[in-house]
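Shipment paperwork, digital attachment
Item: protein structure file
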Amino acid sequence: MTAAVITASASIVVAVLVFVLNQYAQIRAERRRARLDRVANQLRDLYGPLHALVDVNERLWQALRDDNLPGQQQRRSDTALTEDQQDQWMRWVQQALMPANIQMRDLIVGRADLVIEDRMPEPLRAFCAHVAAYEVALAHADNRRPLIRHPGAAYVDYVRRSFDVLKREHHRLLATRRSGRG
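Attachment content:
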């Protein structure tokens, strides 16, 4: 009878252990799937479009600079730009740069739940404030300077770095899924 009790007890322990390990594997797989879904949503709905729009604006900005765009100090002074330069600058701002900026701001505000950090990062906050300030400046012909400056490289670097981090994590999670590891 002792051998039968030991065998039955061992069978029960093994069954419980298999059950616990199976539950643990399922929980890990569900967490990984949820993380993969979250990262995919962040890339698709926020950081991917934001990255593409930043890239477009940066290319436009570089092309304008290469085409002898007056420097920032010259654009900020009241008399430095000729009327033709001012008209050209405002066309680029109103027709290309600001529409993309508004799209980016709307993405950030509309999809703030997808931001990587627990709080809204300063480069994103500064960019959204700049866009709002520029919209006001453009609405008044006598005041074309925005109250809040573009955050510059801090914003561009943040978007590019965040996109790259998410892409690497997305690839890692996909590789983990394909290899069957949880």
